[in-house]
Amino acid sequence: MKWNLDVIGKTKIWFAISGIIILAGLIAMFTVGFNWGLDFTGGTVMEFNIGKPFQTSEITNILISHGVKDSQVKAIGSEKKQVSIATKSLDDKTRAEIVNDIKSKFNLNDKDYLSSQNVGPSIGQEMKFGTVLALLVASALMLIYIGFRFNFEMGIAAIMALVHDILIMLSTYALLRIVVNTPFVAAILTVFGYSITDTVVIFDRIRDNLRIMRKASYAEIANVSINKTMTRSINTIMTVLIMLVLMYFFGPASIKEFALPLTIGVISGGYSSIFIATPLWVIFKNKEIKNRAGNKAAKA
Amino acid sequence: MRSKSAVKFISVIIIAAVIAYIAFFGIKAGNYSISPVQDNIRLGLDLRGGVYVLMQAEGNVTSDAMSRAIAIIRNRVDSLGVTQPLIVKQGSNRIRIELPGINNPDQAIKFLGQTAQLKFVGPDGKVILTGADVKDSKAIYETDQTGVQQPVVTLVLNDKGTKAFADATQKFLGQPIKIMLDDKVISSPNVRDVITNGNAVINGMQNFDEAKNLANLIRAGSLPVTLKQVEYSSVGATLGPSALKASEEAGLYGVILVMLFMIAFYRLPGVIADISLGIYILINFILFALLHVTLDLPGIAGMLLSIGIAADASILVFERMKEELRAGKSIRASLDYGFKKGFVTVFDSNINTLIAAFVLFFMGAGTVKGFALTLIIGVIASMFTAMTVSRFLLKTLVEMNLTDNKKAYGA
């Protein structure tokens, strides 16, 4: 396939598209906020296979009898025969008592006690801090690597595209109300790694073309490089998406919630490499020319 | 040249097939046997069911106190009869405990978290002293009458303990006193002397490690570190295996689709890419087994994702090749150029993914680590297969001169 798109000429359109999504995401973040999961808020979640239809009030009543007032009891599974109970962090004794009561009330055996999880609130704080720190460290290291192997403008443009992808990911979580748990951290960092790979492939071609097309403008070089790598960009996104979409449809519940944001992140990562990182590099380069011209004029 | 290349090509595929067979089914020849890789890959609790607990010591604790606490917990876990438990120190004041295949998670956790009960019990079944009466206990070497060095455990008691112990040793001279932790006998030395000064010695240890362990247990009973459970998770025995099955299905269908996609788009090179993708997956599994990777759900996600990344290495090379073919170069020249140019790109781009994955591995917590590790292994293995296996197979394929039609190479 031969591509002939004028990506750089329509820079404003691409920036506007991303701007609108990120703006919507930011509004959601600051109004409704994130759907923080157990890993960040702390609390207890238990899941049982009741095996028959039930009223959530039956379970809420058991909880209240043990002094647990604020709880979320949800029927889950395709036939709504399973229950997920989320409460504040319970101590071992209370939890064991509740489990026993539920087991005897619905006549369950050990196999029907599907899973339970309890996380103290301090863990979440450590994780938030740890994630932000990890992102900063990884960005700094990538900037150094790209600055060393390519050049500094490309490094800055690539990192800005990464910031774009992270904002898109955050917007996704905020707008779609996806639960923010440990896999969220992994998802963000995966997109982080994937997106930079994609950007480097295009920048690598620009680096080549800078040598070959000595007379061309930066915009032309960027356009040619994008079009030459377009088939590859689409195909590689396709192979990753094939894996992600199948993980979403066939994978277990806990991978499902991870596959959706990753899918959006991978698309965003591919998009930002072409439509954000490369135009940004052109803007930086053109500014450099202008500054140089300006300096000359000032001297004269 | 042609037949020689064909031989090379077919040998690589046969070797790969044999390794794949051994890896998945194992082999037994005389005294040597290799068990299948799936038996050597440790599955995470989320895939086989079980309990995971993170305990935190309250207040300021020394690393010595932590190792005593770990000794106590190991002792308790052993008494539960769990196969393949994992008890490790995490950070400076936390202990991570993984117990696969526990039926009643709440009871197990309650048992693990309670304060240790150390008791010295006489032959009459009465408690002589408790952990609270023990001031210190150490493992040391003592030289006996024959001049042989023997590992022993020393005991230093407080005033109350000294008195009680003096009475007891007088009463039970020549009889055993049981040392019990959590109602389990950890040692039952015979009383050989009346001990009035509060300094006792327990001998008859097999080795220094045994002495050290006993001293640890005794001190832990006398100096309980208050352990608080900060994180806990249990996955039922039905949920784990069904999650594993679902991931396997997702992975299998995904790989088949990616392989079909590669053939549809890149024809002959696509076939080569698929063979090396198969070898790549094989290398991945063998590395998981060799490096004792614990494969959990995020780990599987990382691995599935890396299959997409592995395909990308081939795509990069093939696209470069196609450009050269269209520009009128020969198949052989295009191939060389494609790999030469492609490798620089694959290298630069994968290094960045590796940076992210390593940062994740060293700074991430728990399950994120597993994800990062499979991603690191995946990226390195994919660079290796793309640059060696794919390259070799494609070169020999071209040398076989099956076709001159550039369309067969995707152009």
TrEMBL record, chain A:
Key words of the record: Cell membrane, Membrane, Protein transport, Translocation, Transmembrane, Transmembrane helix, Transport
Subunit structure: Forms a complex with SecD. Part of the essential Sec protein translocation apparatus which comprises SecA, SecYEG and auxiliary proteins SecDF. Other proteins may also be involved.
Keyword Protein transport attached: yes
Topology within the bilayer: Multi-pass membrane protein
UniProt family annotation: In the C-terminal section; belongs to the SecD/SecF family. SecF subfamily. In the N-terminal section; belongs to the SecD/SecF family. SecD subfamily.
A Gene Ontology molecular function term of the record: protein-transporting ATPase activity
Stored Pfam families: Sec_GG, SecD_SecF_C
GO aspect biological process, one term: intracellular protein transmembrane transport
Domain Protein export membrane protein SecD/SecF C-terminal: 108-286
One GO cellular component term noted in the UniProt record for this chain: plasma membrane
UniProt protein name: Protein-export membrane protein SecF
Cross-referenced Gene3D superfamilies: Multidrug efflux transporter AcrB transmembrane domain
InterPro entries tied to this protein: SecD/SecF_arch_bac, SecD/SecF_bac, SecD/SecF_CS, SecD_SecF_C, SecD_SecF_C_bact, SecF_bac
Subcellular location: Cell membrane
UniProt source species: Aceticella autotrophica
Record function comment: Part of the Sec protein translocase complex. Interacts with the SecYEG preprotein conducting channel. SecDF uses the proton motive force (PMF) to complete protein translocation after the ATP-dependent function of SecA.
TrEMBL record, chain B:
Gene encoding the protein: secD
Assigned GO CC terms: plasma membrane
Nucleotide-binding keyword on record: no
Signal peptide: none
Transmembrane feature ranges: 7-27, 250-268, 275-294, 300-321, 342-365, 371-394
Alphabetical list of InterPro entries matching this protein: SecD, SecD/SecF_arch_bac, SecD_1st, SecD_SecF_C, SecD_SecF_C_bact, SecDF_P1_head
Membrane topology (UniProt): Multi-pass membrane protein
Start and end residues of each Protein export membrane protein SecD/SecF C-terminal domain: 228-397
Record-given protein name: Protein translocase subunit SecD
